[in-house]
Write a structure and sequence with these properties.
By secondary structure, the chain is mainly alpha-helical. The protein is built from 13 helices and three strands; from the N terminus they run αβαααβααααβααααα. It has a three-stranded mixed β-sheet with strand order 2-1-3. It is globular, with a radius of gyration of 21 Å.
């Protein structure tokens, strides 16, 4: 068997080149600035929510417990790709080692899956608060909250194992140029020089389980919430109930909208520029907006911040 044929039957295991938008230097510098701003606000905003939620006793409620989990997730989610991407924007050699790519791929999928489940848990928390206010503390007890959060983390961490293994085992015939800013499943599948239908089927099934199903459960939860709110006679009561859920609904729309666009269509049909920008959006813009959405609209967080500032 010839050397070239041997190379064609093996997956490349040295390093990958992340193309990003290297052919458009001006756009690359613009994206560097945007990503840096988004990443900085993400770090500051989510860290603030974590610190305030833990230090202020008034925020020791299920809602803020899950919000703290979401903030930790968003911090890890963006940090798994952010620093390396910012460095690559300035480097001529935009490479990532095979090991780092594997870690990035798995961590990104695991944290993304965990966030999908956690957003369902948060929707259930809002359902219990609005539809069963008198039984809320019983339904959402401390032990239940910890179990639900643990279920979200464990399911998310276990989900991407098969996808990661199948994607990395695809023969790439020495091809190591990833048309994206970071190691992501659809971009890596495009490198394969063999039939990828089985891997794409697994990716599609996982997307249905961790994107479509959670979104469906969230829609069901909010249908019950809307029905309960409409039965409230007081206009002020209805407004307060809707305000309680508005922040979560906004976060759900931003996250699931771009994730569905990226993962629910075959990688071969995914227009590369649109896919890359969608990846940037749900990795940096959504995680930057999450703490802003929850804090700018939330009077309890404002009061907690003022109390914390007085104490310090």
């Amino acid at each position: 068997m010839s050397t070239s044929l041997l190379r064609c039957n093996q997956s490349y295991e040295g390093e990958f080149i992340l193309l990003g938008v290297a052919d458009r230097p001006r756009l690359e510098m613009l994206l560097f600035g945007l990503v840096l701003v988004c990443y900085t606000i993400t770090l500051l905003g989510n860290t603030t929510i974590i610190v305030v939620s833990r230090l202020d006793p008034h925020l020791h409620t299920p809602m803020y417990f899950f919000l703290t989990n979401l903030s930790v997730l968003d911090l890890c989610f963006t940090t798994s790709v952010g620093p390396q991407m910012l460095v690559n924007f300035w480097r001529k050699s935009k490479t990532i080692s095979y090991g780092a790519c594997v870690a990035q791929l798995y961590i990104f999928l695991a944290l993304g899956s965990t966030e999908c489940v956690l957003l369902v848990v948060m929707a259930y928390d809002r359902y219990a608060a609005v539809c069963h206010p008198l039984r809320y503390t019983t339904i959402m007890s401390h032990s239940v909250c910890y179990k639900m959060a643990a279920a979200a983390w464990v399911s998310g961490i276990c989900n991407p194992v098969m996808e990661t293994v199948m994607t990395l085992r695809l023969p790439r015939c020495g091809e190591n140029r990833i048309d994206n800013f970071f190691c992501e499943v659809p971009a890596l599948i495009k490198l394969a020089c063999a039939d990828t239908s089985l891997t794409e089927a697994v990716l599609f099934t996982s997307s249905v389980l961790f994107l479509v199903t959670p979104l469906g459960l969230i829609v069901v939860s909010y249908s019950f919430i809307v029905a309960a709110v409409l039965r409230i006679r007081s206009a002020e009561g209805r407004r307060k109930a809707f305000n309680t859920c508005a922040s979560h609904l906004t976060v759900v729309s931003l996250f699931f909208g771009t994730a569905l666009f990226t993962y629910l269509q075959p990688p071969s049909n995914n227009a590369h520029d649109k896919a890359k920008m969608a990846s940037l959006f749900y990795t940096f813009v959504t995680t930057m907006l999450n703490p802003l959405i929850y804090t700018l609209r939330n009077k309890e967080v404002h009061k907690a911040l003022r109390r914390l500032m007085k104490r310090t």
